[in-house]
Design a protein that fits this description.
Layout: H1 2-23, H2 28-34, H3 41-77, H4 84-95, H5 109-118, H6 122-144, H7 152-169, H8 173-183, H9 191-212
Length: 214
């Protein structure tokens, strides 16, 4: 009877595990592949970390759409023509970004030490990533919609960028240098991120130069 009881408990545990995997977005095909009797704790940990990366990517894809919607509403409210074509291209491109690839980015040892201190948790790194992407999306849209760099919108964006950078660097030259090193290795970025920064950087540089001298 004890063997029957143990078998029943294993089956119940497996069913509950399958229900959990379905709840966090696994397809039945993936469940069949990964959820088997005798799976070790290490196997389960690896599967969960993989799915966690998938879910974070989906979350960032949705956030990119929300940011695109927000900047479109803002431009229309301020009387500018929304850059529909540009935003649709950038958002589609950002939808294909897999942020888990940053875990495979080859940081120099000293850079990794710096970023580990700047972003002690993954959520803090994602918060910066979201702020960076949103500002770049705004800058790209402002440039295409011909929002004057001397406008209040330009000033607000310049201040937002300065505060975002100050928050993570605290004007520390070593931290700034580490960020610049990553910026100089854009060929290792996801293509969607590369497209975004190319569209945004000229406008960002212009508003920063103009408003820093005011």
């Amino acid at each position: 009877y004890s063997n029957i009881g143990e078998g029943y408990l294993r089956e119940v545990d497996l069913l509950e595990q399958i229900a959990f995997y379905k709840a966090i977005g696994f397809s039945l095909k993936k469940i069949k592949k990964h959820v088997i009797m005798g799976t070790t704790d290490e196997d389960i940990k690896n599967v969960l970390e993989f799915q966690e990366a998938v879910l974070y990517t989906q979350k960032e894809s949705i956030q990119a759409k929300i940011d695109g919607l927000a900047v479109t509403k803002e431009l229309i409210k301020e009387g500018y023509e929304a850059p529909w074509g540009l935003l649709s291209r950038l958002i589609r491109s950002l939808n294909e970004v897999d942020i888990s690839t940053w875990k495979e980015y080859k940081f120099h040892e000293d850079e990794w030490e710096i970023f580990s201190k700047v972003f002690p948790s993954e959520n803090m790194g994602l918060d910066f990533y979201n702020s960076f992407r949103k500002i770049c999306l705004q800058a790209a849209a402002y440039k295409t919609s011909q929002v004057p760099i001397e406008s209040d919108s330009g000033a607000s964006l310049a201040k937002k960028w300065e505060m975002t950078i100050l928050k993570v660097t605290n004007d520390d030259e070593r931290i700034l240098s580490a960020f610049l090193s990553v910026d100089n290795n854009r060929e290792h970025w996801d293509m969607g991120e590369q497209h975004l920064i190319v569209e945004a950087e000229d406008y960002l540089e212009d508003i920063l130069k103009y408003h820093q001298n005011r």
